[in-house]
Amino acid sequence: xxxxxxxxxxxxxxxxxxxxxxxxxxxxxxxxxxxxxxxxxxxxxxxxxxxxxxxxxxxxxxxxxxxxxxxxxxxxxxxxxxxxxxxxxxxxxxxxxxxxxxxxxxxxxxxxxxxxxxxxxxxxxxxxxxxxxxxxxxxxxxxxxxxxxxxxxxxxxxxxxxxxxxxxxxxxxxxxxxxxxxxxxxxxxxxxxxxxxxxxxxxxxxxxxxxxxxxxxxxxxxxxxxxxxx
Length: 230
Hints:
Blueprint lengths: L19 E5 L5 H12 L18 E3 L25 E6 L2 H12 L4 H7 L1 H12 L4 E6 H4 L3 H10 L11 H16 L12 H15 L2 H12 L4
Parallel strand pairs: 1-2, 1-3, 3-4
Helix pairs in contact: 1-7, 4-8
């Protein structure tokens, strides 16, 4: 039985959907998911314009939960009274070694030590997500959704978009998303992406273990081992 809330005079009250947030460190595939959300849902997502240029957004976004951003209304996880702002939160996680090389060594051109210090924001995002108590939460892993129908559709359904309601040209979506990304960000090939040494990978792993504690195994352990990172 579904109960509709009412005012004192008996009128039905329309409840606004809970605010939604996507937490994703840079180079975690959010632009692909945005492309699909706008295609299948017909609603704008925050960031550089893709398919939908105007109107309300499906969710806010944060690359680093400690900082606000000009491309989203995100300004923190908690209100002034300490209550959680978001009722629905997704965390996107990509293999941290690939995130690090793509963003800091490739895109930003940082030296390793400087990048490692800044990369603590990757762990901080996980800690902040894990500490949320009231939000409806879900974790999505890069290799499960990037150009993959099952993982992508799972993300869309988490935000209330049913892909079956729209025409499905998935291969065409992959190509149009890649074309958009090339036009706005360029492309770093696997050959061009800097490679981490064994010592550098160990330093990243040790930083994550130190910052995450038991959450390291919960969110990353088996995934990192599958990528040969221990």
